[in-house]
């Protein structure tokens, strides 16, 4: 087959795999034929992630110039007109923070007891937000932009949505999702508030312009102010109207929606429920405006919904909500997740036991999970509350009985499971492929259920977390000094940890971020016996192989969580072989984020006002806002008219009832027949004539 016969989609996939496997091949591909060069450019510039910092835009000779790492991002910033046509996704993220400190010569972090020494730096400590004009120029140079993502703590320009509509008609996804702070509020109180709201909230004045994008399929919005939430409700109503207008585009309609706003009121719920093509819905709210009626409206109106996620939903959901709720018949995946760190309202999880009464006839995936606090991996103190604190309470028997039928993926570590509870589910769900639960027993007890597990012909993954009381030996000593690797971008800064009196949880006090050593390479099956001998909580190789033989499709046996040991990967070619992978340290993204928040706390940085932040409302938006006012006024009038009609109807019923009472005659008691005895007495003893005459005079 000649290269010209290969479709562009296939060629792009091949070139992307080659660049991922061998990054150094980029030079050769870019210097090849024009078709290979274009394919390589599409792979290299597919996603461009740029820090929200104007110092990168300065000339190299400027004192404040901050260079970017050589690569596609630097090339795009230097020449957006040339490389913009190859960009599909543009992401704006938090800026890099540099400090005016010097650290020990052998490290980019300093040891306990050492202090930084202030020195003059050629780079200003405070980043300068990208100007609105710069962003507008970039969007103009990317005519085929598919996805725009804003994750910076600084607010985007007020007119960003109008710019997207002007320059990127084919945009399919828009996301405004600033990162949620990880460190406790006492650490970064200078940057964010103590609530989950994190960065300052956006009013989103130009958000309504997104309704003009006929190709828009995905929308992810968070951290909106009350004004912004109203704009979101208005936008969703406009999108529903566009969806109904088939003359605009036959495929118009939102298919994936993510909303995490504080003011999640019934108006927003009503707008969401009217989408006819919505397939994936993710809801989150730290406020209390989400009630039973609003959530029920969404469930009843989403006829095409396949995936529903309730993530960190506080609201005011009643204890018995799920007893009367009905899930859409099209729903395949249902997820409820909450973090252990909170903060949560005391009633946030009260509705979970009523899930036992929820009908789950067509669900293939059910997840009721507890997100573990990632800071514990770094030995950083974090506040916990009673609602989400690990380990949880025992799972209600009614909930266990409700898991049955077509479920293939069951993840339920919110409650603690007994072995008998798990056995019941294994018998009721013969199609299970993935099991992920919190087991209230030693990890090795799972092998006592081999007979029940073997009946699941499609079982691929068994993932368990175990409370510390069932794992006597910790995988990593809690008082071990574990060093943080140096960072090429941002130094690690120690910070004062919360005192035991101010924190609900008492943990070891550390003065630096503590990270585990680099993960050890996977170990073949032979060393597992020695590992088990060192840690009695681990299963033996013999038991794992026995389980693998009984469960023919089993691929992974995992012990995760705070006391997790790792995972056993099962390879069946040519014979059964077990490879043990110890629990790795914190993810690089987590480490980088904590470094960034530490640097922000020390530098005292706050997002500044952006050049060109303010925006003059367009004529189109003014007209839409006027229409919205008219719509609200008409809705209020219709409500008043409906109330008046109900009053008039009740009054008419009352008048008709009164008329029926007046018109109905008084019932006449029929005369009883005269018996022969009465006739005989009457003839023997006749009444006087004057009595007879008086009776005849009575009317």
Automatic annotation (TrEMBL):
<protein>
    <recommendedName>
        <fullName>F-box domain-containing protein</fullName>
    </recommendedName>
</protein>
<feature type="compositionally biased region" description="Basic and acidic residues">
    <location>
        <begin position="632"/>
        <end position="662"/>
    </location>
</feature>
<feature type="compositionally biased region" description="Low complexity">
    <location>
        <begin position="663"/>
        <end position="677"/>
    </location>
</feature>
<dbReference type="InterPro" id="IPR032675">
    <property type="entry name" value="LRR_dom_sf"/>
</dbReference>
<feature type="region of interest" description="Disordered">
    <location>
        <begin position="632"/>
        <end position="685"/>
    </location>
</feature>
């Amino acid at each position: 087959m000649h290269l010209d016969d290969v479709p562009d989609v296939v060629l792009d996939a091949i070139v992307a795999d080659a660049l991922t496997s061998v990054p150094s091949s980029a030079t050769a591909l870019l210097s090849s034929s024009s078709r290979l060069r274009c394919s390589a450019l599409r792979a290299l510039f597919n996603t461009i992630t740029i820090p929200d910092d104007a110092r990168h835009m300065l000339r190299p000779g400027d004192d404040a110039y901050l260079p970017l790492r050589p690569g596609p991002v630097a090339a795009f910033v230097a020449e957006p007109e040339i490389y913009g046509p190859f960009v599909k996704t543009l992401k704006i993220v938090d800026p890099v923070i540099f400090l005016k400190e010097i650290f020990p010569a052998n490290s980019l972090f300093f040891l306990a007891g050492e202090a930084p020494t202030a020195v003059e730096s050629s780079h200003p400590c405070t980043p300068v937000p990208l100007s609105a004009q710069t962003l507008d120029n970039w969007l103009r140079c990317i005519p085929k932009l598919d996805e725009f993502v804003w994750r910076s703590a600084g607010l985007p320009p007020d007119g960003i949505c109008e710019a997207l509509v002007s320059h990127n008609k084919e945009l399919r996804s828009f996301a405004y999702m600033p990162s949620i702070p990880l460190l406790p509020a006492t650490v970064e109180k200078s940057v964010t508030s103590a609530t989950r709201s994190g960065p300052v909230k956006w009013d989103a004045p130009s958000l309504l312009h997104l309704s003009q994008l006929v190709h828009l399929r995905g929308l992810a919005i968070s951290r909106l102010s009350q004004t912004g939430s109203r704009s979101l409700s208005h936008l969703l109503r406009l999108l529903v109207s566009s969806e109904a207008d088939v003359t605009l585009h036959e495929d118009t309609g939102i298919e994936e929606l993510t909303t995490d706003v504080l003011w999640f009121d019934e108006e927003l719920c009503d707008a969401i429920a009217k989408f006819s093509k919505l397939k994936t819905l993710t809801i989150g709210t730290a406020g209390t405006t989400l009630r039973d009626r609003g959530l029920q409206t969404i469930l009843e109106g989403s006829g095409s919904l396949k995936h529903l996620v309730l993530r960190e939903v506080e609201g005011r959901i009643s204890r018995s909500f799920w007893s009367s709720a009905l899930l859409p018949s099209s729903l395949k995946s249902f997820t409820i997740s909450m973090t252990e760190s909170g903060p949560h309202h005391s009633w946030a999880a009260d509705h979970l036991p009523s899930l036992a009464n929820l009908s789950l006839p067509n669900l293939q995936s059910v997840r009721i999970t507890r997100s573990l606090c990632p800071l514990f991996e770094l030995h950083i103190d974090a506040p916990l509350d009673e609602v989400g604190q690990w380990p949880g309470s025992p799972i209600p028997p009614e909930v266990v009985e409700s898991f049955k039928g077509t479920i293939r993926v069951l993840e339920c570590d919110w409650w603690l499971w007994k072995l008998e509870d798990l056995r019941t589910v294994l018998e009721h769900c013969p199609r299970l492929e993935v099991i992920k639960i919190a087991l209230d027993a030693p990890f090795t007890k799972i092998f006592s259920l081999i007979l029940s597990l073997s009946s699941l012909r499609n079982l691929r993954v068994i993932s368990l977390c175990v409370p510390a009381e069932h794992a006597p030996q910790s995988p990593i000593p809690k008082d071990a000094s574990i060093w943080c690797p140096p960072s090429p971008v941002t130094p690690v800064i120690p910070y004062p940890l919360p005192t035991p009196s101010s924190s609900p949880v008492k943990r070891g006090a550390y003065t630096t971020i503590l990270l585990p050593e680099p993960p050890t390479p996977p170990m073949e099956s032979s060393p597992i016996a020695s590992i088990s001998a060192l840690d009695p909580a681990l299963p033996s190789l013999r038991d794992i192989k026995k389980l693998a033989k009984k469960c023919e499709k089993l691929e992974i046996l995992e012990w995760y969580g705070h006391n997790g040991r790792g995972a056993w990967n099962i390879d069946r070619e040519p014979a059964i072989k077990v490879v043990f992978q110890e629990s790795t340290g914190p993810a690089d993204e987590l480490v980088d984020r904590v470094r960034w928040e530490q640097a922000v706390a020390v530098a005292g940085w706050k997002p500044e006002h952006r050049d060109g932040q303010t925006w003059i409302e367009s004529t189109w938006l003014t007209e839409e806002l006027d229409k919205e006012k008219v719509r609200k006024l008409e809705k209020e009038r219709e409500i008043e008219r409906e109330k008046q009609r109900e009053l008039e109807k009740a009054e008419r019923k009352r008048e008709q009832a009164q008329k029926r009472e007046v018109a109905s005659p008084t019932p006449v008691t029929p005369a009883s027949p005269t018996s022969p005895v009465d006739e005989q007495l009457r003839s023997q003893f006749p009444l006087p004539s004057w009595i007879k005459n008086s009776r005849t005079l009575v009317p």
